[in-house]
Amino acid sequence: MTNSTIRRALLALVLALAGCERDDTVIPPADAHVPTVDGGTDAAAPDRTAPTIVDTDPDEGSVDVARDRAVTITFSEPMRMGTWSARAEGELVVGADASVDGETLTIDAPDGWPAASEIEIRLDDDWRDGAGNLVARPFVLRFTTADDDGPAVVESSPAEGASDVSVRAGALQIRFSEPMDQGAGTVRLEGGPGSLDATAPSWSATAVTYPLVDLAHDTSYRVVLEGFRDLAGNALDATTLGGDAVLDFTTGPDDEAPRAIASRPVEGHVDVGVLELGGTLEVSFDEDMDTAITSVPIHVGTDAPVDVDVSWPDARRAEIAVAGRLRLDRAIRVDLRGLRDVAGNALAPEPYLVDGELDFLTGTDAFVPFVVASTPLEAATGVTNPVGEVRLAFSETMDESTAEVTVRDNVGGTFTVTGTWTGAGTTLIVPFEFRAGRTYEVDARALRDRTGTPLSDAHAYLGDGVLDFTTATPTGASCADPLQLEHGTTDPATGRTTFLLRGNLRTRNNGSQSCDVEGHGGQDAVVQYTKTTPDLSDASGNGRALRITATTATNNVDLEVFRGVCDPRDPAAASAMVRCAMDQRTWDVVLDVPAGDYFLWVANTASRGDITITVEEVATLRDGETCETAWDTTSAIYTAPTAPGAPHVWDVPASLGSSVDVDDANGPDDGLACVETERDDVVLSFTKSEADTVLDVSVTASTFTIASELVFGGCRPDAPGATRGACVSGAGTGGRRFTARGPAGPVHVWLSSGLSGRTFSGARVEIREIPASVAPGSSCATAIPIAPGTSVPVMPDHAARYDAPSCFTPAANVTWYAFDSTEQLTHVRADLGGAIALVDAASGRTIGCADDASVRPLFHFAPIGSRVCVAIESGALIRSLAVEPIDYDGAGAQPAARVPIDPPSLAGTVFDDYDRETWLAATPTRLYQNMGLLAVIDAPAAGGPSHLEGGLDVHAAGRAAVTVGEALFAVTQASLSSSQRVFRYTDPSGAWAPEVWDLGAPSGTYTGFINALTSDGTSLIAVEERLTSGTTVRNARVFQLSTTTAGPPAALGQIQDGYNVTGVAADAQFLYFFGRAPGASRPDLYRLARADLAGGTPVLPTRIYTFPASTGPSSSAAAEMALDDLTSPRYLYLSGDAGSIHVIENPAGESPRYLGAIWRGESGDGAWDLQRSTGDIFVFSTSLERQGAWYRLER
């Protein structure tokens, strides 16, 4: 008895005892989150309402939350478990657990949440209610836990236990593990002489500094810390600093040279008045000196030196008697190099004295003061930003009663700034916020020396008494270096300013892109724009809206706008964010906001490229551009119905770069549900008069393909009370016609370009409000019941059109039928041509749609008992259906399960996202997935944290991989086939240890690239791709390698005419592969007997399946293949187009049969593998989550 037979028997018993309760979950398709035109059942109207979050405990932004408190999130209705994460300060909380009980989700940390930490609870957008409706958007809850941990000392100077500490330490510095209460705590010095001034602390948030002077040599000291506590009042951890909260250190011996630290007159001064000195010079030292030395030499001009007396008022201050010794206009040198400290160490010549002598010039102010140096330097250009002050050093002591200078810039600004004197009146510090990219003049000519002599305006350094410099042109790389209005190009006619942000100048990630659910996190840049006008509603009539565009030619761009806050990591940034828009080639955003400073952050979503931003203030908004200016029945483009039953018509003109309002702005689900639009959108409004009517909508593009979505009860999909209606993509010049159900009241129709680089090209929109039909066959909900069979009679004659699937022409009416599946796979074939579609009744999702199902049947994989609706074009020649239940026991019939793998952090890597895969390989316990060429994701197959495995710089991961047990094998990427290799990345224990596996293979072993690698359970098999060369058709060679021992590959044989081989599978009897025969445009599925390869003659393979156009893999894409059994396979799984996975039954038999697609992915996807130990298939897909996620298709 097969598994399917057992399941049927069990199902019959359950139905007999308890009635039928179907599992309405389906395989997640690419459009699973799209509200459908009819998702109902026969019993009641369908539940299409997206669940919402109605309460949280704790509340968003709560502080001092108890660490043992469980988090509860309450939904509007009972929920199924989805993907979630809990992080503390950005790190995953180990051990956190979640459970769902009806409407309540509970998340708990058994070991307690980390103290004093911001906790972020994040729910992805895969949470569903019982009807399968997804939440509208991801959800984030943030709160801060209570601080109940005491602070610790993490660093000090002197360090704990330090020896040989200099007595010149000058300060005690202590750094704590967290911000401290700066009004608490004191220190006490014990163990010897010295001064530790506990009354003069200098605090930062986590550190404090105290003056520490007059220490003795060779002395053991203790600094006792008392009363310190953090901001929450937690006392300092008593075990810190060696366990006693006491800092111990020992000073070194007295082997340090003493230093002069001050003098009168000041070293190097000029115009020193002899009478002002009073016959005495003074010099101060930093330690006790040998007071037995009572004379020093003095040089007056060119006279011979003479000794003068030295007296010591105290051991650190010398008075030198010079009465009668000095002369006017002489250079004076007092030689102090003979002085010693009490330990006999000679005076250090530096830094104060420079040469060990006190030098000055006497005079009667014969010198004009001048600037001798400055920071920045005179005439400097490209001065690094930010510049917060200027320093001017003068040739002599200046009059400290005057400290004002004039600052001028090149845009007309003039400012009077008061500086601060230091260095005994010889240095002026001028504080000012010097803007990036400007030229400045700092005019110091109003300054005087002590005798009133004005500053020189002719000295060589400044030249004119004015310091000139230019700050560096900003790059926008940070808040310290933003681009501002003057750094853009302003069109005087429109007032529009254009900024160019160079990709190569963006060097850091400042934390913008908060709404980017794909976690790109690339290097970003910022423009600061000051809006001077009020918003449009201002009573003055002078209001303006802010229009911002961001465009890139490289990948896509994220745009985030803050008001009044620059730093995206600032705690105030969340409330200051005005708009966050992610991942499009071009953004055009209109913001009706008040005056103020706005910070516009942009970043590419992948590799860096140039980004162009334009900003302007506009007085009016274009019709149809925003919700406030939506076209309606009063607009000039509207035509009222011309007769009963005629439509309301809007001839919508092409846009001129209109604002993007709903395209993934502020979250991944604020945009159109059925397409990732690449350009702009427009909107029109209509009032639905009755609740029980249906809107019949037709959208016809003027030129390029567009998409359209209806929103009921609000304008934007994220508006309070708004619900999504139908959404269609691919509306071309032939038109798309669809129906939508919703409440009475306002309805907004969004139209958007569906092509990259295209603006909205115009469209005709027709809307009819028609009665809801209850006639049999009018909809999936009222479908005519049929039973599976080989010849089921039908008469599609319903004379109306409700919920027509996409392959039906706009004029076609629809007749609906329905059956309950009796196997996990059902094929439906029509007797003649005509439009026909299968629709999953539980979700309303179209499973398959064709204009002719008489040759190739439609198929549906689903649990037994699933309701399937069949839409048939009314008036078609179809008169019977073959509804064939198929006993399917392979992977993918049951609902796909998301594997809760936490993606690895990309911080510090070259990667921007996870969607770079070409292969995925499953072992019994691990999943491996390549990240382009340079790294491999290593994740537990059961779910959990993942990480990146690297070390592939030389032998980058190629396009094929296979596992044998826990061992992972892969081919490498190479520019020449002769240098391509086979590697084993993990050993049989699963340890990451890359090594060459085709060891000893001589150069040139492979004459064609290998993009196909598999295992038959006992050996590895690799097949060359073998592209053509001109008109020459090359045979593909097949190689075999051991799975246990490294060594050169053995040639098994050649495949005749088998080139472009992109996928391979093997059992004991056959080799199966994708290959493109000569003259074919796409590859087909082939097999050949392995025994035939051994004959030495190229083997002509047998074609066993040809994919219909646009459903099979492309010629260039790597194609995954896997057999469910390596001896007697029942199923062959293989890749198709757009990340799909298909299944062939009886691949080794005489008549292999195509069964259908068990997975619908997204364009660019393609990584999956069969886990041989379970028979399940693991797949990585971006079809449901733009960042990508892992799913398990169970057998």
From TrEMBL:
The name this protein goes by in its record: Outer membrane protein
InterPro entries, per the entry: SbsA_Ig (IPR032812)
Segments of this protein annotated with the region Disordered: 29-61
Domain (SbsA Ig-like): residue spans on this chain: 47-145, 147-251, 254-349, 369-471
Highest taxon, organism lineage: Bacteria
Alphabetized UniProt keyword annotations: Signal
Source organism: Sandaracinus amylolyticus
Segment forming the signal sequence: none
Low complexity bias (residue ranges): 38-52
